[in-house]
Structures are given as structure tokens and as C-alpha cells.
Write a structure and sequence with these properties.
The complex is a heterodimer of chains A (about 425) and B (about 130). By secondary structure, chain A is α/β, with parallel strands linked by helices. Chain A folds into 2 domains: about 240 residues, 3-Layer(bba) Sandwich (FAD/NAD(P)-binding domain); about 130 residues, 2-Layer Sandwich (D-Amino Acid Oxidase, Chain A, domain 2), CATH 3.30.9. Chain A is built from 12 helices and 22 strands. The C terminus of chain A is likely disordered. Chain B has 4 helices and 4 strands, in the order αβααββαβ. Chain B is an alpha+beta fold and about 130 residues long. The chains are: A alpha/beta (about 425), B alpha+beta (about 130). The complex binds flavin-adenine dinucleotide (FAD) and iron/sulfur cluster (SF4).
């Protein structure tokens, strides 16, 4: 069977908040520009039809998306000022903030929430639902979304310029033989390919090794979040309440913390994050989460409730200095695969959305210039450094490192003792 | 990650760290029960998408030095050391259809020989409402 190929203008790999925001913003910039040319309010030549595609390995948009999630709405409001009217699935505004320090038996409530964990004005969301909705908005704007198409390999020309992506084969059996339904992967050629694969992207890894995008950067640091959704029998955990914990069950050398978010219909999102720079070879992040739930305070909360969903996903928490070079010839990196997350606030949705928008602005300028070289696309790094993302990330850069030495826990401990007298 | 010996562990029994951890199926669950609630699906008749470049290391060096930590850091019970009836030796079994695409193994394996690649399109978890 012949391998098919398809020419597009821009291909986004991964339908997460970063790339969907990028695709939507780009479609809009192109449409507004073409309209302005058509009605004479702007001089120049129309860009014509720009083909924008998004490929996603999951069975549907959002199927592989897992998050907390408390979202800072700043970026979504920039992408779509009327997001509420447009039906963005917001579960509830954050109504209460609570910060607990867990000892083995007790939960000590901080009279104030440390500023980085304050969530007033934010929204509790299911990122699975939010992403699925963003996917619909993209399709309304003329973006083509292809679920069930994983990007398997980058395509390069002779000079190592990225010219697209090859999707994975279908219908290969366990021995590597072709089955009756065999279909070779498709070669998607594009002027610009955008990787928004989330933490530890598999293509991002190939690409950055081949083009040395990590040269001179600090190694990336990761955490793993293990999460369940629970249905509680009554209103014991208030809708819109956001609880974060530190302390038990993590040992003092390991970064770790819990979250509980109150969603509608007596459902809570509960989970535990463990820093993957831990030392103990017997540590098991899933077991840490089970222990967290066995803490008397948490066990009481869950008593009589029902676990309804489970999942786990890694988080890139290295911050500004661990970010790779964000561009190369014909390619840009957005969202978590480029390390845009704010690890101190455990928030990456807003920075992912913003990075996608800045990538779109970069690509739009490249389309106008007809130039997709690294030099032209380096504009993206400039836009990132001039946006609010950079000061936000700069202020937290050594956060995870502090945890590693057990210092932050010590600090939090001391702080709480001070506060509680 | 450090070696078992640096923590003074004898063998890799997790009770050395998790004394008293139990799965009561009410509040706490083992990985297999939890993963059931991630609605994971993969066509089982495909090559494993977790590429382990050298599985000889598993029963020898890794068992000795780290006690096969893949069995612990993977949150979906994908990696399992089993007795191979044919050879009488221990070997790594990869239950790839459980994989929730978290990428922990690609990051954590101490010899950096696990490579996560995407499985056939559509495979993976279904994180409805997550
Ligand atoms: C446990 C946990 C809790 C979190 N809590 C919060 C929170 O409370 N607030 C907050 O703001 N942020 C939170 N975050 C972070 C937030 O979820 C991420 O920053 C955000 O999802 C990043 O978006 P993204 O688009 O970069 O990547 P992702 O959301 O990871 O999306 C990437 C998409 O690309 C697809 N993909 C990957 N590789 C390929 C490929 N090769 N081919 C095709 N498709 C591919 C994936 O299937 C996925 O759909 C949390 C993260 C975790 C894991
Ligand atoms: S990606 Fe995550 S779930 Fe899949 S095998 Fe690796 S550690 Fe396990």
C-alpha cells in the first residue's frame, strides 16, 4: 500500500490547550487579514485559504487530557474575551482557598494562604471538557482536526529543516506484520509544524536531540500527578473550595503535595503530585497518593463516597531555565512540551494558551513574509520574552530546586509555626 | 533515583517504605483497580509502544541495584517482573494496554533505556471529565 501525503500550510501536533488556542488564533488572524484586504481597509495581497490541521493521538479531543484544574482565566480572556457567553465549560468560580499542612495525624490549617497558592478570581475546570470545547471552536473556525492520528516521526529536508510530520501506521500486529486493515502513516507536509505534545513529548524529544535544542539549558525536572474523581454522599466539601496540602505523606527530601477541588454535583477532584527527582527507589507515586487518602483528615472526607475516575500525567516543572530553544527551521514548540508551566502555582493552562497564541502570531508574520526559516521564527522567543509569561516564570525559577533539598518543606513548616504561634 | 543499598534496603519489598499500606477498595485501590477507572483501551494485537532497548538488564543489574522500580513508578501497572516458565528465569512483562500515556517511564528509568512512542491512533485513556 502506498503511503499517502498531504500538503497543508500549518500542522499542529497534539490537541491540547496550547495548540488548539494556537490554531484558533491563527485561523482568526488570517480571516481578519483577508477580510481587511477584501474590503480595502488594508493594502496588500490576500493570503488566500490557509490550511490548518491539528493531529491528536487520542480517540477524541480531550481524551488524553488530565489536569487539576484551577485555571487562571487571563489567557483564555485574551483568546476569547466573551468565553463565558461562548459556552466555555467552567465548573465553578473558586469560592474558597485553603492551605493545609499535614502531619501524620493532623491537618494544620494556615490562617492565610501563601500568595502563590491564592486562587481568587480563578475557575475550577475539567480540562478534558475545556479542551473538547476549544476543539469545537477550532472546527467552527475552519481548522481541520484529526483524532486518532499520532505524530510518529518528524520529516526533515536535506538541511535538517522540518518540513512536516509522519503519522503512525495502523494495522500492524504484535509481531510487526501487516494485518488486513494495514494503513501506512500519512506524510503531512507543512510550512510550519507546531509541537504541543504536553510534558515529555515523544516528537519533541526526537527533535530537540537532533537539533540540540536543549544545549546550554538546565535539565528539565518533572513531577507526576495521580488523580481521582470522587462522588461524595453530601455537601461536606463546598462547591468552589480549593484545598492544597503539603507535608504528609511525602518524606522531607521529596517534593510532594495534595489537592482537593470542589466541583458541581458533589464531585471532587483529588490528587497528589510527587516530584520525579526523588531518591528512594522504593517510592511509588500511586502509593503516595493512597497514603494521602489514608490520612485521617482525608479519609474522613472520602468516607462513604465513591471513586469514579482515575488517571495520571506528568508535569514539566523546570521553569524558565529548563526551556528548550522554542523554534528551529519550520518548527515551533508550545505549552508543556516546551516547559511553559508555572511550577510554583502548579498552573500551566494559562501559559499554554498564551504560548499557542504567540506561536500563531509568529506564524502569521511568517506567512506574510513567506519565510519559515529559524531566523524568521525566532520572533516567537522574542514575543514570549516580551509577554507576561516571562516575568511570571522568572519569579518562580528556583522553586523546585528548593524542594529538592527539603528546604521548602522546612520553610513552609517554619512559616506555619510562625503563623499559628 | 538512588540505589537500594544507599537507602539501606534489603531487597525490594515495598513494606520497607510503605508499612501499613493496604488497599481496602473503599478509600484506597491498587493500580489495576484504579486503571480500570481510566477507561484505557489499546488494540492488544500491536507491538508494545514501550520500547525497552535491553531487557537483559531487568532480571540482572536492575533487579540488584534498584529492584525494578518501573513496577513502582508506573501508575498503571504496565511493568511486571514475572517468572518465565520456559527458562525458569525472571523477565519483564509489559502490559502495554494499561498505559495511560503519562510518560513517567521514559523519564524515570535509571538506565534511560525505555522509550515511549505513540501506539496505534486512538489507543490510550479516556479522561472524560478529568
Ligand atoms: C495532575 C496535573 C494537575 C494540573 N493542575 C493544573 C491546574 O490546576 N491548573 C493549571 O493551570 N494547570 C494544571 N496542570 C497543568 C496543565 O494541565 C498543563 O500545563 C496543560 O495541560 C498544558 O497544555 P498543553 O497543550 O501543552 O499539553 P497537554 O494538555 O498535555 O495536551 C497535549 C495533547 O497532545 C497530544 N499528543 C501528545 N503527543 C502527541 C503526538 N506525538 N501525536 C499526536 N498527539 C499527541 C496528547 O494526547 C494531548 O491531547 C496540571 C497538570 C497535571 C498533570
Ligand atoms: S507512560 Fe506511564 S502509564 Fe504508560 S507505561 Fe510509562 S509509566 Fe506506565
Amino acid at each position: 500500500m502506498e503511503r499517502e501525503s498531504l500538503e497543508m500550510d500549518v500542522v499542529f501536533v497534539g490537541a491540547g490547550p496550547a495548540n488548539l488556542s494556537g490554531a484558533l488564533h491563527l485561523a482568526r488572524l488570517v480571516r481578519e487579514y483577508n477580510e481587511a484586504i477584501a474590503n480595502g481597509t488594508r493594502a496588500g495581497e490576500s493570503l488566500g485559504e490557509i490550511e490548518i490541521g491539528v493531529i491528536e493521538k487520542g480517540a477524541s479531543v480531550g481524551a488524553h487530557i488530565l489536569s487539576g484544574a484551577v485555571m487562571d482565566p487571563r489567557a483564555l480572556a485574551e483568546l476569547m474575551p466573551d468565553y463565558a457567553e461562548q459556552g466555555a465549560p467552567i465548573e465553578t468560580p473558586v469560592l474558597e482557598d485553603e492551605f493545609l499542612y499535614l502531619t501524620k495525624k493532623r491537618a494544620i490549617k494556615s490562617p492565610i494562604t501563601p500568595p502563590p497558592l491564592k486562587n481568587h478570581g480563578y475557575h475550577i475546570v475539567s480540562q478534558n471538557r475545556l479542551t473538547a470545547w476549544l476543539g469545537e471552536k477550532c472546527e467552527e473556525a475552519g481548522v481541520n482536526i484529526f483524532p486518532e492520528f499520532p505524530g510518529a516521526e518528524m520529516l526533515y529536508d536535506r538541511d535538517d529543516r522540518v518540513i512536516g510530520v509522519r503519522t503512525g501506521d495502523k494495522g500492524i500486529d504484535r509481531e510487526g506484520r501487516q494485518k488486513a486493515n494495514y494503513e501506512p502513516g500519512v506524510d503531512l507536509f507543512a510550512k510550519v509544524t507546531v509541537l504541543g505534545e504536553g510534558a515529555r513529548g515523544s516528537l519533541t524529544k526526537q527533535l530537540s536531540q537532533r537539533l540540540n535544542l536543549n544545549d546550554g539549558r538546565e535539565p528539565q525536572v518533572y513531577s507526576l500527578g495521580v488523580k481521582e474523581l470522587w462522588e461524595l454522599p453530601d455537601d461536606r466539601f463546598a462547591l468552589g473550595r480549593v484545598t492544597h496540602t503539603l507535608g504528609y505523606p511525602s518524606d522531607t527530601k521529596t517534593y510532594g503535595g495534595g489537592w482537593i477541588y470542589g466541583m458541581p454535583n458533589r464531585v471532587i477532584s483529588i490528587g497528589y503530585v510527587t516530584g520525579l527527582d526523588y531518591g528512594d527507589p522504593l517510592l511509588d507515586p500511586h502509593a503516595e497518593f493512597q497514603r494521602f487518602k489514608m490520612h485521617p483528615f482525608i479519609a474522613r472526607l472520602l468516607n462513604g463516597g465513591k471513586m469514579i475516575r482515575y488517571g495520571a500525567k506528568t508535569i514539566a516543572a523546570g521553569g524558565l531555565h529548563a526551556m528548550p530553544q522554542l523554534y528551529a527551521d519550520g518548527v515551533l514548540l508550545t505549552g508543556d512540551c516546551a516547559g511553559f508551566l508555572n511550577s510554583q502555582r502548579l498552573k500551566g493552562i494559562h501559559t499554554a494558551i498564551k504560548s499557542g497564541m504567540l506561536a500563531a502570531e509568529t506564524i502569521f508574520a511568517a506567512l506574510l513574509a513567506g519565510d519559515y526559516s529559524a531566523g524568521q521564527l525566532s520572533r516567537y522567543e522574542r514575543l514570549v520574552s516580551e509577554s507576561w509569561i516571562t516575568p511570571e516564570l522568572r519569579s518562580v525559577r528556583n522553586f523546585h530546586a528548593g524542594f529538592k533539598g527539603g528546604r521548602w518543606l522546612g520553610m513552609a513548616n517554619a512559616g506555619l509555626q510562625f503563623l499559628t504561634g | 533515583m538512588k540505589k537500594l543499598s544507599e537507602y539501606g534496603y534489603r531487597g525490594s519489598n515495598i513494606n520497607q517504605r510503605y508499612d501499613g499500606l493496604r488497599f481496602d477498595n473503599k478509600t484506597t485501590f491498587n493500580k489495576v483497580t484504579d486503571v480500570f477507572h481510566a477507561s484505557v483501551g489499546h488494540d492488544e494485537d500491536q507491538p508494545a509502544h514501550l520500547h525497552v532497548l535491553d531487557t537483559n538488564i531487568c532480571a540482572t543489574r536492575c533487579a540488584e541495584e534498584y529492584g525494578n522500580p518501573c513496577q513502582r513508578f508506573c501508575p498503571a501497572a504496565v511493568y511486571e517482573m514475572v517468572d518465565d516458565a520456559a527458562t525458569g528465569k525472571r523477565r519483564l512483562q509489559i502490559n502495554f494496554s494499561n498505559c495511560v500515556h503519562c510518560k513517567t517511564c521514559d523519564i524515570m528509568d535509571p538506565y534511560q533505556i525505555i522509550n515511549w512512542v505513540p501506539p496505534e491512533g486512538g489507543g490510550g485513556p479516556d479522561y472524560k471529565n478529568m
